[in-house]
Amino acid sequence: MTANGSGPLLVWFRNDLRLSDNPALLAAIQSGEPVLPVYIFDDDPAASWQLGGAGRWWLHHSLAKLRDAIAERGTTIVLRRGSALRELHVLVREVGARGVYWNRCYEPAALARDTAIKDALRAEGLEARSFNANLLFEPWTVKNKAGKPFQVFTPFWRHCLGLAAPTPPDAAPAHIPGMMRPPSTDKLDDWKLLPVQPDWAAGLRAAWVPGEEGGQARLVQFLDEAIVDYKAMRDRPDLPGTSRLSPHLHFGEIGPRQIWRAVQARIAHNREPGIMAAAETFLRQLGWREFSYSLLYYFPHLPEKPLRSEFNSFSWREDAALLEAWQRGMTGFPIVDAGMRELWHTGWMHNRVRMIVASFLVKDLLLPWQVGARWFWDTLVDADLANNTAGWQWTAGCGADAAPYFRVFNPITQGKKFDPDGAYVRRWLPELAGLPDAFIHNPWQANLMTLNAANVVLGETYPWPIVDHAVARERALAAFSRVNKSGDWVEDR
Ligand code: FAD
Fold it and tell me: How confident is the model at residue 403, as a pLDDT?
């Protein structure tokens, strides 16, 4: 790279695939230099957390939308494939760039890569500037009184809420002053991010509209229709009670500051206690996202290793058949199977059901949480290293502020409580649709006449339970209590 006092500025898009509330893009435009938007697809097979199948599908559509939105504003996004360091180096030389601007990522590998790129650019006398677009409170701004990272959510979030409110988001630029002759770009289709033979994405297409407009529309719909009941409905997988913003947030098609502001605006004219409490509960979920990012930043080993080191010696089981039954939604526990099939068809699963299926894998089956996290990683459209890792470690009881080891979700009572009419199970397991409500979550307890009337033949049309939950629970308690006896957990309240 060569030192250069003037010249175009590269805006390197990553997980910030939007034009509004995009400080790197705005700063580049305000510099008065021509702007060259760039996206680099780095699918290095050696990387340990390469984008999964569902994520690749989403990325394709999100980039197509971003490309079109940038074209509408008068310029072109350059797509390149390969190592970010190498491709940026090539592009900077090709166009004689003055520097590169980007919005920060927080995953350990991304942080290491970005630091190396910043150093390399600056060593060449080029400008390298990064901005915050992805979090309300960046990890290094949130520490406890001892100057250490919080490891318990409630004090973490209380502390965040006492800090200065997030800055207002900027609108999308009307025009992006591009280069007269931008360099060549890859064709998005050539990256082959979409599944073919088989094309398994029909359910994803039906469920989602990737891209910035899709994210904004989802937010508006949620604020108009669902936030009022969020507190009461957020645990009900049978109802459209949550925002479903997670994939849009993961890919940065919408930013948390935009959500924060929109919620504030929503409650500005209606401050009745119900809606205030709902808004607070909803923003608290964004707080969990911030907490997860903070944990990953301070404890970069978390995607592979438990936060609580005594879990390193936990003796998980290995059983390919049980794992496959879980992955395919064939465990014989309807709420678990419905969740796993929702995941397979739509690339998403309701939070309550994520907790149930995760608990089932790590406690009923005693299979390692890392194996479950990998499956989620490949199948979720919102697969997110910080949130996924925190969710799995929370469920396994080995993470920060985790579920206590003796909490073993009962798939039958959870089903009855959160899917009371069995509507969710019936949607995803049509083979059980004819069962009466009393047996929809426990078909093996129905008598033969009831099963026959519903056309259910256990072992044929739907599996028998792969474990006896009561027995599995006792086994899990015994295994987990052995670990917890040696626990050295200290809360930082
Ligand atoms: P809403 O209830 O509308 O919440 C709004 C936003 O807050 C979400 O979009 C999300 O960004 C954030 N949020 C909500 N709950 C959590 C949470 N518990 N932890 C962190 N952030 C949260 N979330 C992901 O985004 N990606 C993952 O890969 C992921 N894996 C998970 C794995 C397990 C085992 C568990 C238990 C949870 C996981 N979550 C993950 C968290 C949560 O399930 C999803 O964020 C949520 O279901 C997304 O739906 P929503 O957008 O409708 O959420």
Answer: 76
- 64-97 pLDDT, tens digit each: 999 999 999 999 999 999 999 999 999 999 999 9
Does residue 36 have its Cβ closer than 6 Å to ligand 1?
no
What was the pLDDT predicted at 114? 97
Tell me if 293 CB under 6 Å of ligand 1.
Answer: no
Torsion angles phi and psi, residue 407, rounded to 5: -90, 105
Q: Three-state DSSP class for 129?
A: strand
Q: Are 334 and 425 in contact (CB under 8 A)?
A: yes
What pLDDT, on the 0 to 100 scale, is given for residue 483? Answer: 82
Q: Determine whether the shortest distance from the Cβ of 117 to ligand 1 is under 6 A.
A: no
Closest residue by Cα to atom 3, ligand 1, is 243
DSSP state of 305: S
Distance CA 453, CA 481 (A): 44
Of the residues 58, 242, 246, which should be mutated to test ligand 1's pocket, given the most ligand atoms within 8 Å of the CB? 246
| Residue 373 CB neighbour total at 10 angstroms | 22
Please compute, for residue 69, the number of CA atoms within 13 A of its CA located in the half-sphere on the CB side.
19
First to last CA, the chain: 49
Of 149, 141, 146, nearest to 166 (Cα)?
A: 141
Helix (H, G, I), strand (E, B) or coil at 13: strand
- Is the full-model pTM beyond 0.90? yes
Using the mean position of ligand 1's atoms as its centre, give its distance from the Cα of residue 358 in Å. Answer: 13
Smallest Cα–Cα separation from 280: which of 293, 291, 264, 294? 264
